[in-house]
Write the structure tokens for this entry.
Amino acid sequence: MSSFTLEASDGAARAGLLQTAHGEIRTPAFMPVGTKATVKSLLPVEVRALGADVMLCNTYHLHLRPGEDLIEELGGLHAFSGWDRPILTDSGGFQVFSLRDTLLEVDDDGATFRSVYDGRAERLTPEGVAEIQRRLGSDIAMCLDICPPADATAREHEEAVRRTELWAARQVAAPRAPGQLRFGIAQGGTDRALRSRSIAGVVELPFDGYALGGLAVGESRKEMLETVAWAAPELPADRPRYFMGLGDAEGILEVIARGIDMFDCVLPTRTARTGSALTARGRLNLRNARFARDPRPLEEGCGCPACAEFSRAYVRHLVNQQELLGLRLLTLHNLWFTLQLTAGAREAITRGAFDAYRAEALATLATGPEEEAWQR
Amino acid sequence: MSSFTLEASDGAARAGLLQTAHGEIRTPAFMPVGTKATVKSLLPVEVRALGADVMLCNTYHLHLRPGEDLIEELGGLHAFSGWDRPILTDSGGFQVFSLRDTLLEVDDDGATFRSVYDGRAERLTPEGVAEIQRRLGSDIAMCLDICPPADATAREHEEAVRRTELWAARQVAAPRAPGQLRFGIAQGGTDRALRSRSIAGVVELPFDGYALGGLAVGESRKEMLETVAWAAPELPADRPRYFMGLGDAEGILEVIARGIDMFDCVLPTRTARTGSALTARGRLNLRNARFARDPRPLEEGCGCPACAEFSRAYVRHLVNQQELLGLRLLTLHNLWFTLQLTAGAREAITRGAFDAYRAEALATLATGPEEEAWQR
């Protein structure tokens, strides 16, 4: 029986529920990134209060520091981090292949790379990644895949697809934690024949969900969306579909419209750390002098903890003074914005009104933020 | 009528209540430092939940960035920072005279220094400091004083006392915010005759409270405590007595024992940012490998938000990975520890049991933290 229930469809857009060992995930779902078992600067209780159902952690980083043996000894990733709800662990494939200087060797068995922490040679194999994730005790374990950049050669894309499928077949057979779900990944860039072959291969394997990897890695937004439009429907309708690495407002709305159920990105949290706020009308760079005396919240009408209490002027002061509270307030706001946008999409799909929701959100985004300085 | 009510005495130790325009301060009171209108990494609601009655902000830093005109326009320091309880503003004298490279000129009128932000020459005078604090709208405004280091010459100490008194007489006559209290400061190092003369001068002026400045600036702990023992009783019994710049457990207990009511220090928050926890048995450096697999909270039995949920092992992981949540958890814990110690002292004074409280706390501190690694 599938752990995924499709609740409503609206065109290609879907609303569903994914059951995991630590509770349910309402889809479409944005997953805040907590690479090292912490969503930067926030307590688990705050992340939950923002509306997040699931946190994404990174197998590569946690394997290297502090190590899965330590985390297992401390009771697993949930007990260790204090986040008692669903956790998805990325496989580390993206890190191994995107930190190109550190990749030492890749063959059909696995990949050897130099640790970014201490330079030691480390090896990841499908069985090894499954074992790390089993010991971490995540709720959803991703397969080890090979994710080439958009400008990789056809040969490189071919090899990535071949090895990703080879590895998926091995990882799906490896032991997993009790109740742990496992997601396969399709590669193939934007090449229709290759990506379709990758999808056909992975959906043969009994995964609990399927991901499109290797998109939003340098190709144009237009190419990316065209690919999703035909690729998502090739994934099984009764399993969740995960777009790996997407978190901007437009992108979220457009991939939901094409049948994607889950997505993640560091964009909201990273943007916060650069001093910018995400709003319905686009980004506000709080370093801009026009916010110096602006008494308004980051976004008018926003229900986040930052907007409930603090002015743009204060957040700007904190950002300029490199005060930690500044990036914490922006992190709260940006995650709230992204999670609310996604929750709104889910609600609109349930009502059969997703097209209007998307059109209005995109139109608002296109107006851009107000440019004038605050005047009393 | 004094804004200060003495509720109980126990030997020289005192418990009292100081009424301010934004609520009351229970004394003895530790004041968390929020130099730039933020206690680093924390929301005002968190600082309050730790038990703090009053936040200390810095006139020097806020004058330079973002400036009192901006803060006044945004509704004053309380509205700007979101901290709606008492705020004490330090005068900036300590910064002007401790950042020695930046001091350009000091004469009987005031002091000229180079801004640490942009190198521009800036001038502080008693009237100017009063005006900045009036516009900031703090609840307690400190006088501009001259604070020499412990190893200053007798001549320098003499001059500091003379100018501090001169400036106090001018500042006490300057306009202040409605309901704003004003505290005078005695200097004079550990020289009994000089300090007594400074105290005699300042208590002639109608301040709402009096501070001992220029202690804990390089002299030995023994000399400091001997000075407080005779100097505190020379301050009026019906006004709060503030020891400027003290925040370690032993120091807090010892100055309370000698009649001090208020104190502040960056120690709890700064120690957090270096990765250490304050406990009843001393400091724990979380970077120490013996905590790597330690499932216990920072301090057993502690009621702080960090100890309620997280292990030493997790905090150590966060500290080692320079994750912001690590210093936030340590900041929460260290402020809680310091505020609880102070609240316990107040309660003991009320019961007439302060000597026993102090003796037990000092004995526990002397045992030192356990040194063995965690063993299952």
Observations:
- Residues 324-351 of chain B form the longest helix (28 residues).
- Chain B touches chain A through 35 residues (CB under 8 Å).
